[in-house]
UniProtKB/TrEMBL annotation, chain A:
Residues 1-169 form the FAD-binding PCMH-type domain. It comes from Actinacidiphila acididurans. Keywords: FAD, Flavoprotein, Oxidoreductase. Pfam families: CO_deh_flav_C, FAD_binding_5. This is FAD binding domain-containing protein.
Automatic annotation (TrEMBL), chain B:
Pfam families: Fer2 (PF00111), Fer2_2 (PF01799). The keyword Endoplasmic reticulum does not apply. PANTHER family: OXIDOREDUCTASE WITH IRON-SULFUR SUBUNIT, XANTHINE DEHYDROGENASE IRON-SULFUR-BINDING SUBUNIT XDHC-RELATED. This is (2Fe-2S)-binding protein. The lineage of its organism: Bacteria, Bacillati, Actinomycetota, Actinomycetes, Kitasatosporales. It comes from Actinacidiphila acididurans. InterPro entries: 2Fe-2S-bd, 2Fe-2S-bd_dom_sf, 2Fe-2S_ferredoxin-like_sf, 2Fe-2S_ferredoxin-type, 2Fe2S_fd_BS, Beta-grasp_dom_sf, Diverse_Oxidoreductases.
Amino acid sequence: MDFLRPASWPEALAAKAEHPAAVPIAGGTDVMVEINFDHRRPEHLLDLGRITELREWDGDGDTVRLGAAVPYTRIVEELAGDLPGLALAGRTVASPQIRNRGGVGGNLGTASPAGDAHPALLAGGAEVEAVSVRGTRLIPIDAFYTGVKRNALAPDELIRAVRLKKATGPQQFAKVGTRNAMVIAVCAFGIALHPDVRGVRTGIGSAAPTPIRATAAEEFLAAELADGGHWDRRGPLPPALLRHFAGLVAGAANPVDDVRGTAAYRRHALGVLARRTLTWTWEQYRGEERTPTCA
Amino acid sequence: MRVTFTVNGRRQEADDVWEGESLLYVLRERLGLPGSKNACEQGECGSCTVRLDGDLVCSCLVAAGQAEGRDVRTVEGLAAEDGTLSPVQRAFVDAGAVQCGFCTPGLLVAADDLLARNPSPSDGDIREALSGNLCRCTGYEKILDAVRLAAARTAGTVDA
């Protein structure tokens, strides 16, 4: 094994072009587990730890450009205002030790359906900035997840950053697990209200081969909110609407039975999370202060 | 490969380090610092917790090469040179927060990190700060007592 230690981003891209099978390592919270357990023996480890711009974010204008290796600890502390959904999701990542190391780039690179950032990235309409020596392209998050632990990156590409519009409305994230810390999601749900375009986006985690949106639920809700004049009236949502939305979210999932839960449980729990998080975001939209709490 | 970094204020060099090796392995097996414990090797248990450039991390998930040139603080660096225990170590002894002792080094480093950042933590803060450290013996109550005791002593609200 070779340990490649580029000192700059251009050097990292050159190394990835020369060794397309090199495994990038930043926080190491996924990669080192695979190496410790002998599940992976890459010929080259590509250490991104020295590339400072990967650990920076900037929020000029209406978009946040979040460096791939900004650790979750800082996302939670610094971005709860601009990216509330992602900050809430980051808050549920593992433990302080892991949040100090792991970042969104790692979640995307691994592309596990259980990665905590994915529902928030889907709900926020993120774009992934994929870069190689050939240039930069922006991959819409909807096109990024291509299969179980597979993504749309080309072999010579590295994730430089994620771009997310600053929130224009309430966002929520909820996750089911056996305890609050150190939990791989049994299932997870993210929702973002986008009042500027009178739209709603969602993200489902751990309940399909890839992270997915609940598109039918989004379309139903957007139509109901528009037809009922809810965006302007800001009244409470009818219980039947909440129930139908929850049912559509549960129906969008394609879960499996595994050690963490059954498919039936995941579907049921997703419906509950969908109803709760929609209620929370809507109450927040109506101007009623509420403190985000555990689902 | 050779890896050079600072451990507890002292410059250390490790030779013949395998590229896939963890910082934890280097500390324990190459530098003779077995205080950080090796248990789950997947970041679940926190028994290998150290500070890397001031950040609390699981040393089993840091590739040795990533520590090059960095500053590492382990449990061995908590007590003074003359062996005087740090406030957190003293409080763990006095509160009976140690049973088999395997998780203790990681908990000490995590608790020390908490009190450095937040000298008077709430119970919620303490639970959150220690949520990445598993103990299979004590049931945690005495560990929480110890952290409260260390905080109170440091604040001078109880006698050391």
